[in-house]
Amino acid sequence: MELDIPAEDARYLLPNACATNLVMTMNLRELIHSSSIRLCDRAQWEIRNLFEEIARQVNSVCPGLGRYLQPKCESLGFCDEDESMSCGKNPTREALGI
Predict the structure, then answer these.
(1) Active site residue 38
(2) pLDDT surpassing 80 at residue 14
(3) What is the percent of the chain where pLDDT is above 70?
(4) In CA terms, which of 26, 29, 34, 94 is 20 to 30 Å from 76?
(5) pLDDT: is 7 or 32 the higher one?
(6) What letter does residue 20 receive in the DSSP assignment?
(7) Would you tell me how many other CB atoms lie within 10 Å of the CB of residue 58?
(8) Which residues fall within 8 angstroms of residue 52, CB to CB, at 6 or more apart?
(9) Are 78 and 92 a contacting pair, CB within 8 Å?
């Protein structure tokens, strides 16, 4: 962590690092909400990869629903994070004067 490696990534170097199995159940509304946060470029890479795969799977079964699984800034048209937290892909609320 002294090398500015995020704690969630540094854990891979520990001898007790292990694989995790995950079972998740959510309705469409919660899936859209979770995807809006977890598909953001600022989300931790591991959870972002998980939600990218979830979006691919949903798209393969029901393309009409898969289009709703996107980062929040894509559906809003702007980033609602503080200027310092934005990934820069879309303008922030402050930059748009909203």
Answers:
(1) yes
(2) no
(3) 91
(4) 26
(5) 32
(6) -
(7) 19
(8) 39
(9) yes
**How far apart are the two ends of the chain, measured CA to CA in Å?**
37
Q: How far apart are CA 51 and CA 68, in angstroms?
A: 13
Q: Give me the residues paired with residue 92 across strands.
A: 79
DSSP state of 15: T
8-state DSSP, 30: H
**Token code pair at residue 84:** 């310092």
Q: Which listed residue (38, 42, 48, 56) is catalytic?
A: 38
For the entire predicted model, the pTM comes to 0.72
**Residue 63 CA, distance from chain mean position:** 19
- What are φ and ψ of residue 57, in 5° steps? -65, -45
- Dist CA 80 CA 60 (whole Å): 30
CA dihedral 86, 90, 93, 96 (to 10 degrees): 140
